[in-house]
Amino acid sequence: MNRLSLTFACCTIFVMLQCSAYAMPSADFFEDLLLARDSESKSFRANYQIKQTGNDDESYNLEENHSALFFEDDYRISRQYDYSDGVKIEILAYVAGVYSTFLTGDHVNERSHAAGIIGWKDRPIPEGAYLDPRIIWGHFQGKSVRKWLERLDRRSVRQEEDAYIFSISSDESGERIDYHFSPDFGHIDALLYGYHAGEKMGVLEHLDASKKEAVRRQFIVNEAVSFEDFETIDSVSIPTLVTRGVYGPAKQEASRRSAISGRLQANPESLDSATIKEIIELNFLGSRELIMQQEMVFTPNSIKVNQPIAVEEIAIEFPEGTSVRDNIAGIGYKVGESPRLPLAELAKRGADAPAEVAAAVQENDEAPDVQSSGANSEENEKASAAVRRDDTPKGNGRSGLMRYIVAALGCVIIGLSIVRLTKSKTRE
Description:
alpha+beta, globular, 32% helix
């Protein structure tokens, strides 16, 4: 081989090495990365503060101290807050598929007793109301990364500036999540959740040619989560500040949407092609704005990863004097004092029942039905999905487009409404 051929061969090899070094990683690479990240933590404990502000509505503002314990599928979350009516503590535990709650602090003074409930049918605080520490590992809106990867079947990868973006989406529901990875793939910098015009939704066929391509390119962000101030804790990279922004239609578009919804409720037959087109353009081309922002700020030195956590730390141990409603056993009692009587019997006895237990039964008349077992049922999953999902309603026998229209008119900032509802209930 002469010198020129040798030089050319060396240059070719160099170029090939450089190209391979900068080649775009595959979708499979990022999927494996997410699954590996999901598997790196078996247990987690931390104290953190939740701060929330509304764009122009002070009723959304809140500031609470939370603590969390997670071990595999079991967890315990405590909330402590004071909205000018006393310090209150609410504890939610999920152990072996059973939800339990305990209300204490100044709840005791308000109700003359502490109240415990065992066996809620659904999660008492809906998923998505507050930032969940498990979002660090991709757990979002009550679903793990594995669940999202099963739910959304399309994959794509792109690079923007110094970030790699891995997108998973569904052409049927229109849901989409974008994961923004750091250049070294060491962590996720951001997560965006929203919707696009899925090919199976029947959206594009109702638009003029001039609007089709614009709508096809749109990714409507409902929630944007950013991760900052990373620290290596127990050999795991953890963000100590997580910020969530919830977006919705600007006021003008929201007013138009409300008017359309009212018109359709009054006369469902008025849903014609012009109305369908108006709804689609409002959702995909209308102005949007930040409605609410929520921060999760971890307390320094409180984060522990992959350290032993006993189930006794997660399960609620009701102290003496607590009035308990046990929906699984179907009984009500006061710990350490009252007899354990069937809930139906307590309801019949009314005033003759022990005062605090009877009050607990009355206060919780709207508590869910008794769970028949510890395992999550399909019914529970569907009920939870109804409050978690922002723009993908359950099937109701209509076409994909009709499901989309129903969702588009009824799903404006569902997560925000959940937080407001949760906060209003704690003030009652």
